[in-house]
Amino acid sequence: MREVFRNELDDLATQLVEMSTRVSEAIRLANQALRSNDLELAEQVIEADIKIDSLQHVLDQQAAEILALQAPVAADLRAVIGALRMSASLERMGDLARHIAQQVRIRYPESAIPEHFTHTFVRMGESAEKIAEATRELLSHPGLEMVPTINAIDEELDELHLSVFSKIAEAPQGSLAPHHIADVTLLSRYFERFGDHAVSVSQKVEYLLTGNWEPHLSKK
Amino acid sequence: MREVFRNELDDLATQLVEMSTRVSEAIRLANQALRSNDLELAEQVIEADIKIDSLQHVLDQQAAEILALQAPVAADLRAVIGALRMSASLERMGDLARHIAQQVRIRYPESAIPEHFTHTFVRMGESAEKIAEATRELLSHPGLEMVPTINAIDEELDELHLSVFSKIAEAPQGSLAPHHIADVTLLSRYFERFGDHAVSVSQKVEYLLTGNWEPHLSKK
Question: Per its UniProt record, what InterPro entries does this chain match (chains A, B) (predicted)?
Fold first, then answer.
């Protein structure tokens, strides 16, 4: 019985890795679609998000079954609750990659990124890909080393997000089309939230490894 | 023992009502701060969000204890998992009310809403207050009657959100300051997400009452 239970917990962990791998792929392709204004690729990202949603659904059902049938306690219980929470964060990261792709589709054939913002969004895209990869790595090999890396990349994203508003405010009136300002505001918000959810996953892993909830509160 | 358990489940339900009451108060005051450009009131909303966060923290700890000590199954297990999920949604609704208040603070003494958008945001504010009240009512007296009401108000919010982008696109170039376009884009997104989280809570209640996960998937 214990072995069955361990296998079930391992299975949850494997599914989290699977979700994070797909999230990492989704943000990479969404960025590529955004940079090269590639409608077909954007459609692919939008379509692929259905799979991430269904992975969450399966994982959550299995976690509920483990709770019902195994009645785990202590560290095992924390692992199952943690898996439920991490799957929710990963699902949202998938949604945000999809939102970025949808922004490409909405604005097509025009580019969603006005020229003045190209460099900023290349950097945001790179940071988002790095944080997604770090999240996948963290879930593949749980340990505390990745936590500060993820926090540092999230700070990059926060700074880039703020820089978008400075750029908007500093642009000479009339130099940016109104719909472009709305586009970059939304895109920037999506990237910033993408980072927040990665931090949220890393806080759960930290909690599972240390039993300490505080980082979750202190990061507010 | 069973009676202790029932009391513990009732206690989770009471705490969800408490959270939703505070969320409802937060969005009401955030709207008032936004409409009347009231910095002091905005600060109050920002400050009060700490309490909502700590209510979530307490509720989640208690839910974890119930899982560990009572090992609930079937409908009781669903109720505990549902409470964990609903507390996460309510906490996000509190965050979004805080973000609206923060937008007032960032732009003060200027108003965060340019004149052209006053009517739209009055309506968004009203819809957000209605959906928060409906969520409170749903959690106070769980039943399926409130679910279509919440979906309908969420659709109002989605339509208003889209109308903000039409207004932005239609505005004569140069008639809206760039930072105002960024402000209304973010504010509108916050209201739209506020509605999404209310729908998410109502889907959990629906799931608890019917055992049917499908509405969660079909609403994507």
Answer: PhoU, PhoU-like_sf, PhoU_dom
Which of B56, B186, B218 has the most A C-beta neighbours within 10 Å, making it the best mutation to test the interface with A?
B186
Which residue range(s) make up the domain with A143?
1-210
When divided into structural domains, chain A yields a total of 1
| ipTM of predicted complex | 0.93
Q: What is the pLDDT of residues A68-103, one digit of tens each?
A: 999 999 999 999 999 999 999 999 999 999 999 999
B68: number of CA atoms within 13 Å, CB side?
A: 14
Are A199 and A132 spatial neighbours (Cβ–Cβ below 8 Å)?
no
Residue B53 lies in a domain: yes
- Taking phi over 0 as left and psi of -120 to 50 as alpha, with beta for the rest, A52 belongs to alpha
The answer to whether residue A195 sits within a structural domain is: yes
Helices (H), A108-177: 118-140, 146-170
Would you say A182 and B185 are in contact if contact means Cβ atoms under 8 Å apart?
Answer: yes
Nearest to A169 among B53, B171, B179 (CB): B179
Residue A81: closest C-alpha in chain B: B64
Tell me, yes or no, whether A215 lies in a domain.
no
What is the rounded radius of gyration, in angstroms, for the C-alpha atoms of chain A?
A: 19
- Its pTM stands at 0.95
